[in-house]
Design goal:
Elements: E1 18-21, E2 24-27, H1 31-60, H2 79-82, H3 84-87, H4 90-115
Antiparallel strand pairs: 1-2
């Protein structure tokens, strides 16, 4: 029986991943690979520590439920006069005047309905 010649695979059977840093190939067994990995792990640990510290301070604050964000707070009647968005530009002032006019019409209509007219 004749011997068969088997072609060699293009990659070795136990392939080690290679990371390129600049023009040098760095394998997993080199110290440069582990130094970068350790640096990434340390940075993540430090960020996680700062975030945990922030969350602990946030939950320890006794006034944490008193804070209301203006962006998600219910609209009040004085909001249109106090926000610079509505008072700084001509378009904002026109929108404010239109809003006041619409609110006045709604108020008079509600009064008529309540009076039974």
């Amino acid at each position: 029986m004749p011997l068969e010649i088997i072609d060699q695979p293009e990659e070795p059977l136990f392939f080690r991943p290679i990371e390129r840093i600049g023009t040098h190939a760095v394998t997993q067994s080199s110290p440069a690979f582990y130094a970068g990995t350790l640096r990434n792990i340390l940075v993540l640990m430090i960020k996680h520590w700062f975030f945990q510290r922030f969350v602990r301070k946030l939950w320890a604050d006794p006034n944490r439920f008193d804070y209301v964000d203006a962006a998600i707070a219910p609209v009040g009647s004085a909001d249109f006069e106090t926000f610079e968005l509505y008072t700084a530009t001509r378009g904002g002032k026109e929108a404010l005047a239109s809003h006041r006019k619409t609110e006045g019409i709604k108020k008079r209509a509600r009064a008529k309905v309540a009076a039974g007219v």
